[in-house]
Amino acid sequence: MLSDIEIAQQAKLKSIFEIGSQLGIEESAIEPYGKYKAKITFNLDADKRAQSNLILVTATTPNKSGSGKTTTSVALTQGLQKIGKKAIVALREPSLGPCFGMKGGAAGGGYSQVLPMEDINLHFTGDFHAITSANNTLAALIDNYQYIHRGKSTQLRRVLWRRVLDVNDRSLRFINTGLGGSTNGVPQETGFDITPASEIMAILCLSNSFDDLKRRLGQILLGYTYEGTPFRVSDLGATGALSILLKDAINPNLVQTLEGGPAFIHGGPFANIAHGCNSIMATYAAMEHGEYAITEAGFGSDLGAEKFLNIKCRAAGIAPKATVLVTTTQSLKLHGNVPETDIKLPNKEGLSKGLENLKRHVENLQGLNQSVIVALNQFHFDSEDELSLVEEYCNNLGAAFARNEGFAKGGDGAIDLAKKVVEIVENDPSTGIEHTYDLNDSIEKKLEQIVQKIYRGSKVVLGTNARKQIKKIIELGGDKWPVCVAKTQFSFTEDAKKVGVAEGFTIHIDNLIINAGAEFIVAVAGSIMRMPGLPKEPAAMGMDINKGVITGLS
User: Is pLDDT at 528 greater than 90 in this prediction?
Assistant: First the structure.
């Protein structure tokens, strides 16, 4: 089989105006970025959204290669189109860090991709650059404020804001700035996060309009005065400048699937360090233009789906009619204690043990009042008896089941999955969300509810720093906001090596980050990094371009 990039490069793409016309979007609302991608503007229409069927795609606990959520999301969309449904997918934008690092791109795979694949995985329409520029402009402005006010009562006692870059670069996690004498600024310890971890990324993705974006930008907490008073972007006077840099980035991006159907791709917060969902604006666009709107949430359901349902859906006023839980025999075998080097080999015993991980995710989603369809991404090395084992297990759990061969066959390989989704939506749809916690609960109780109901741990232990931060959160009114847990994606616990399922463990929270603009609290569990590092053999080392043709991108 051809590689992802070879398949993408052989596809015959439609003009972006042709894609827009499929949705009834007027040309005046399409701002093209070349021939095959565009920004779109649209008038929000809650009545149209109410008539659409929103479908969430999430996954079991992944291995390092992921479970194929994006591929499944695209395949399901293509499969729904094959059976006559007007379906649109809304996805996150890939980050350059993983593209050039270890995980690769995020445009789907095989014959279930979004195109143009190279553009989407690289610079695309410049949204990540706009967010990076806005974030770092703000860092420069606050540093300049400190320089101008140095030695005065108006100088801030503590600056919280960090810089970002869309690269994996461990050397930038902690740095000193302002060195070299008084003309070069005020010396301070700071550092870089990766762009998807920027609060501005979260703000862009949770804003429901440009006005809402401006409101949220003004609320960003930059630091504290010597009197302990919060100092925000609005106090600095930088709201307008940041808004200018993001004036185009707020609009969703329109592209196409490999089979010529419309797709919206917009925003890209990571799910292990942020809330892991594409923008509300892109989801609105898919819902207002499609009978079925397919969207995904990052990593396993303990991260992506939990945050989608408890954070994004609350902010957007939406709820899925059904949730697709993606898995593979590889990831299940990994959680059955099969060595990662052997997970493609037949091992029915290891698979059986790993089904406990699937069960945990199904039960969690059902506890959130979701109708669940398990989609098993089928590979050529999967045996029939192993596939049948998973199907029987799902039936016993009360979850629908479908094999997905979208990677190898495109929409034709996802017709069974599409039919199962339609059947659920028409006969037994989810009727709302049973949230994990109430917004009026204390921060401690919200964390406890997530740990006990979703991870199945016994308790949360707050470090000294986290306990101090709770007092500031209460003073800011942030104790009424949702909580976004930053932890490893490879385990229900905070230890990436503890595969499968676990119970009775403790989650340690050493840091609480106040995202006053995004209006949620980030709780950092364990040693999670907001700036990833590169692997021993970065994917970048296998990439090249010759006569305009890119190779090695995946």
Answer: no
Q: Which two tokens stand for residue 485?
A: 């847990």
Q: How confident is the model at residue 527 (pLDDT cuts 50, 70, 90)?
A: confident
Q: Which residues pair with 520 in a beta bridge?
A: 515
CB contact at 8 A, 481 and 520: yes
Give the start-to-end residue ranges of the domains of the chain.
4-126+250-427, 128-245, 443-525
Cite the DSSP H helix spans in 220-345.
233-236, 239-245, 280-289, 304-307, 313-316, 329-334
Question: What is the Cα–Cα distance from 140 to 134, expressed in whole angstroms?
Answer: 10
505-544 b/e (C-beta count within 10 Å ≥ 16 → b): bebebeebbbbbbbbbbbbbbbebbbbbebeeeebeeeee
At 170-214, the pLDDT tens digits run 999 999 999 999 899 999 999 999 999 999 999 999 999 999 999
The pTM score is 0.95
CATH of segment(s) 4-126+250-427: 3.40.50.300
443-525: which CATH architecture? Roll (3.10)
**Burial class of residue 231, CB neighbours in 10 A (0-12, 13-18, 19+):** buried
Predicted confidence band at 105 (pLDDT cuts at 50, 70, 90)? confident
pLDDT digits (tens, 9 = 90+) for 353-409: 999 999 999 999 999 999 999 999 999 999 999 999 999 999 999 999 999 999 999
In terms of phi and psi (left: phi > 0; alpha: psi -120 to 50; beta: otherwise), the region of 205 is: alpha
Q: Which of helix, strand or coil describes residue 293? A: strand
The C-alpha angle with vertex 465 and arms to 463 and 471, in degrees rounded to 5, equals 110
CB 403 within 8 A of CB 106: no
Say how far apart CA 381 and CA 390 lie, in whole Å. 15
List of long-range contacts for 186-191, beta carbons under 8 Å, 24+ apart: 186/143, 186/146, 186/147, 186/150, 188/146, 188/159, 190/139, 190/159, 190/162, 190/163, 191/162, 191/163, 191/531
Phi, psi of 323 (to 5 degrees): -125, 130
297-310 residue pLDDT tens: 989 999 999 999 99
What whole-number distance in Å separates Cα of residue 404 and Cα of residue 381?
A: 14
Cα 458 off chain centre by: 27
* Phi and psi angles of residue 483, each rounded to the nearest 5 degrees, phi first: -115, 135
Average pLDDT value over all residues in the chain = 95
From first CA to last CA, the distance across the chain in angstroms is 14
Does domain 128-245 fall into CATH 3.30.1510.10? yes
